[in-house]
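Lecture 7, part 2: worked example. A protein chain together with DQA.
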Amino acid sequence: MSSSTVLVLNGPNLGRLGVREPDIYGHTTYAELADLCVATGAELGLSVEVRQTDSEAELVGWLHEAADAEIPVVLNAGAFTHYSYALRDALAQVRSLTVEVHLSNPAAREEFRHTSVIAGVVTGSISGFGVESYVLALGAIAARLQA
Ligand code: DQA
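Predicted complex, written out as structure tokens:
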């Protein structure tokens, strides 16, 4: 992968965007979100690869890949955000830029969503802007890479 490659990683249930609780997560499908990320990346000079898994082990493996190749990561860890120490430990190994994103604003929702066990090991977090959260994250990475 080139130095301007960015991995956009999505955790459990995000493959069901568009049909999943649209009042909270919107009507954009996962395929449309993936297209948006790739198109946004192209405008910013980034080669964006978008992945989704419901498996914690697969997500950990992708973070190891990012750590080894020093690839920046945009991560929506879904519910793993709130309790996966394995994910936090994997993310802590990534020395390149890492942005935690959420479609909704977890701080404004149920109490169990107020804790992010990954927030302390990412470069920054963006929540609450729907699919725009991903666009903002990619913009932040592009700006940092150019700085
Ligand atoms: C989410 C918020 C999480 O609390 C939830 O478990 C998700 C989606 C979001 O994008 O708003 O699956 O990460």
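The chain has one domain: 4-146. The two ends are 21 Å apart (CA to CA). Keep this in mind for problem set question 3.
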